[in-house]
Write a structure and sequence with these properties.
By secondary structure, this protein is of the alpha/beta class. The chain contains 13 helices and 13 strands. The strands form three sheets. A nine-stranded mixed beta sheet has the order 3-4-5-6-9-10-11-12-13, covered by helices on one side. It has a two-stranded parallel sheet with strand order 1-2. A hairpin with a 5-residue loop joins strand 4 and strand 5. The longest helix is centred in the last third of the chain and has 19 residues. The structure holds S-adenosyl-L-homocysteine and iron/sulfur cluster (SF4).
Length: about 425
């Protein structure tokens, strides 16, 4: 159970528990998933291998982990038989635990996952005719509390580690059967490469749009996405990855420079008054500052436009004037932009309603007439609470009374244990 060391993130007002990059399991073994190849090499050296051996073994193991998706050292057939138990004694190949898998009538799939120290989070797979998108979580809960977002009603429990983030992508490949010839196959290299580069994959795109604010977990998200983009890793192009932020201005430049993925910005409103209400982070980083940071986003161009997400809330942010102001702002800052209109996905207790389809259509038309593409996103997976903003884990849905009862019990148990 207790497999997470706690430390505080510098700069946060309240110390937030996060897992360290390496947290040995209860049995002392170290999970290799989420570590860069160099770190694996270091660990092999620390465990007693000669530097040259360590380098070679790290390269082989890395390939098995990310190209073949094996979850057992015994399956690594080009590693000497005697070496495999040595690895098994010291290391593990982790995956988040699947607590529940749900299927929507529209093909969307949602998984409730659990970290090794017992925290639940979710990931969603959305299949389309020409692509398959995995919506990945970056935190358990969120420190921000956008008024229309279900995740925003959860407290931040902790940041996910690089292993837990890249682990979601690996788990999706497991579930979709997208490793070359299954995850345990012992193939020779020629056969493998042929399979690996074959087209027709289901999982083609990744969006960092699950639970949490990815730019408040920058280092771990960066570490995980590096493994996803690494040609020797999961080898997915940065053009197929989009990171969504609610507007953490000071981290946007680093996101472009150091990660280099597509950017989506949760704008949602065009006046200070309304954005302050629905995205409270706006009080810290206002609309002008946010749009300036977008204009300076490294790598943005007409070929690689920034996506502006706009949730359609009835009688709140959906008037003709708002649509015209949106066009004006995007033009004023000369932004290579596209707008994604997201009809609000309701959840129990939400303070807003969804705009009518006619209103959404009219809003979209005005933005289109202004020369900016503004498609309406069809909600996916609403029947299983998998649509944007509906993610909130069951554990967190417990009533306050139930949580209080559990906390009291835990405190009692802790007291009993300490006597
Ligand atoms: N924290 C990041 C990424 C996760 S949220 C961010 O806020 O950008 C992913 C997207 O879903 C965001 O654009 C968010 O504003 C949107 N969203 C949240 N709640 C929603 C809801 N109830 N209906 C529709 N979209 C919602
Ligand atoms: Fe957090 Fe994004 Fe939800 Fe806002 S919309 S509360 S930033 S997950």
């Amino acid at each position: 159970m207790a497999d997470t060391n706690l430390m505080s993130i510098p700069g946060q007002v309240d110390p937030v528990p996060v897992a360290r990059d390496i947290t040995p399991r209860a049995d002392g073994r170290v999970d290799l998933i989420g570590l860069p190849k160099d770190r694996i090499r270091e660990l092999f050296e620390e465990a007693g291998l000669e530097p040259k051996q360590a380098k070679l073994r790290a390269k082989q193991v890395f390939h098995w982990l990310y190209h073949r998706g094996v979850i057992d050292f015994e399956a690594m057939t080009d590693i000497a038989k005697t070496m495999r138990p040595w690895l098994t004694e010291r290391f593990v190949i982790g995956r988040p635990e699947v607590v529940e898998a749900q299927h929507s009538t529209d093909g969307t799939r949602k998984w409730l996952l659990k970290t090794a120290d017992g925290h639940e989070f979710e990931m969603v797979f959305i299949p389309d005719a020409d692509r398959g998108t995995l919506c990945v979580s970056s935190q358990v809960g969120c420190t921000l509390n956008c008024r229309f977002c279900h995740t925003g009603t959860m407290k931040l429990v902790r940041n996910l580690t690089p292993g837990e983030i890249v682990g979601q992508v690996m788990l999706a490949r497991d579930a979709l059967g997208e490793w070359p010839k299954g995850s345990m196959a012992g193939l020779d290299d020629a056969e493998d490469e042929g399979h690996y580069t074959s087209d027709g994959r289901l999982l083609t795109n990744i969006v960092m749009m699950g639970m949490g604010e990815p730019l408040y977990n920058f280092d771990n998200v960066k570490g995980a996405l590096k493994l996803v983009m690494d040609g020797d890793g999961l080898a997915l192009s940065k053009r197929r990855i989009t990171l969504s932020t609610s507007g953490v201005v000071p981290m946007m430049d680093r996101c472009g420079e150091e990660i280099g993925v597509n950017l989506a910005v949760s704008l949602h409103a065009v006046t200070k008054e309304i954005r302050d209400e629905i995205v409270p982070l706006n009080k810290k980083y206002g609309i002008e500052e946010l749009l300036e940071a977008c204009a300076a986003y490294p790598g943005a161009s007409n070929a690689r436009r920034i996506t502006f997400e706009y949730v359609m809330l009835k009688d709140k942010n959906d008037s003709d004037e708002h649509a015209r102001e949106l066009v004006r702002l995007l033009k004023q800052y000369k932004l290579p932009a596209k707008v994604n209109l997201i009809p609000f996905n309701p959840w129990p207790g939400a303070a807003y309603d969804t705009s009518t389809p006619e209103r959404v259509k009219r809003f979209s038309d005005i933005v289109f007439e202004g020369g900016i593409s503004a498609p309406v996103r069809t909600p996916r997976g609403r029947d299983i609470d998998a649509a944007c903003g509906q993610l909130k884990t069951a554990a967190e849905k417990k009533s306050r009374a139930q949580r209080d009862r559990e906390a009291a019990k835990a405190a009692e148990a802790a007291e009993a244990a300490s006597v």
